[in-house]
TrEMBL record:
Protein known as: TetR/AcrR family transcriptional regulator
Species name: Luteimonas composti
KW DNA-binding (keyword) present: yes
HTH tetR-type domain location: 23-83
Region (Disordered) residue spans: 1-21
PROSITE patterns with a match to the protein in the record: HTH_TETR_2
DNA-binding region: 46-65
InterPro entries recorded: Homeodomain-like_sf (IPR009057), HTH-type_TetR-like_transc_reg (IPR050109), HTH_TetR (IPR001647), TetR_C_Proteobacteria (IPR039536)
SUPFAM superfamilies: Homeodomain-like
Entry keyword set: DNA-binding
Length: 217
């Protein structure tokens, strides 16, 4: 679930003595939690196992995250922040709208078809799952991405005719998922080729702009 963290994640400026060490431990815990949640599921992964995998004490895990639910939510948030960083959604008036939409679409699609994301999706959809866990997943992942994209659309509103920005954001990501994401999650198809991904993203962005681009209205 959690990609290997860049060195900067553990070495950003400290606020006091011992801070870099704490950040390194936090990064190790999140990385370990991602592996364990992906491999064993939420119920199967214990805090003891995560602590052992991270090379820290269980007390250290609890001191950083409080409980397993919070740790899971932070791991999901880190994935989204790592694969879809905030600067991806910064509107650049000097850049063509299509190119920015394609950049966001490409990052989102790469994220949702990764092995880790598909495993997490299956875990969330399994019968009898914990509703609170699903809510944590939604808030830490999909909801954050949709809110960031909604803000991007608002920033480029002069080029778009969108009466309901949050709905348009949901539509964009639903188009990107299509039936391909469901078939991948069910193990019914192979991962698409780079050419197929390019075609899918271009078609999605084109459909979105046909609906909302002021110049096409």
């Amino acid at each position: 679930m959690v990609p290997k963290l860049p060195p900067a994640a553990a070495t950003r400026p400290s606020a006091g003595p011992g801070r870099p060490k704490d950040l390194a431990k936090r990064a190790a815990i999140l990385e370990a939690a991602g592996r364990m949640f992906t491999r064993l599921g939420f119920e199967g992964a214990s805090m003891d196992q995560i602590a052992s995998e991270a090379g820290v004490s269980k007390l250290t895990v609890y001191s950083h995250f409080g409980d397993k639910e919070t740790l899971f939510g932070e791991a999901v948030r880190l994935v989204c922040d790592s694969l879809m960083p905030g600067d991806l959604f910064v509107a650049d008036p000097s850049a063509p709208l299509r190119s920015q939409l394609e950049g966001i679409a490409r990052a989102f699609f790469a994220m949702i078809v990764s092995d880790e994301a598909l495993a997490t999706h299956r875990m969330m959809m399994s019968p009898g799952g914990d509703e609170r866990l699903r809510q944590l997943f939604w808030e830490a992942g999909p909801e954050r991405v949709q809110q960031a994209f909604t803000a991007f659309l608002e920033a480029r509103a002069g080029e778009l005719d969108i009466p309901d920005l949050p709905r348009a954001a949901r539509q964009f990501f639903a188009l990107l998922k299509g039936d391909l994401h469901t078939r991948l999650a069910c193990g019914l198809c192979e991962r698409p080729s780079a050419a197929a991904v390019d075609e899918h993203i271009a078609a999605t962005v084109d459909m979105f702009l046909r609906a909302y681009d002021r110049q096409r209205a």
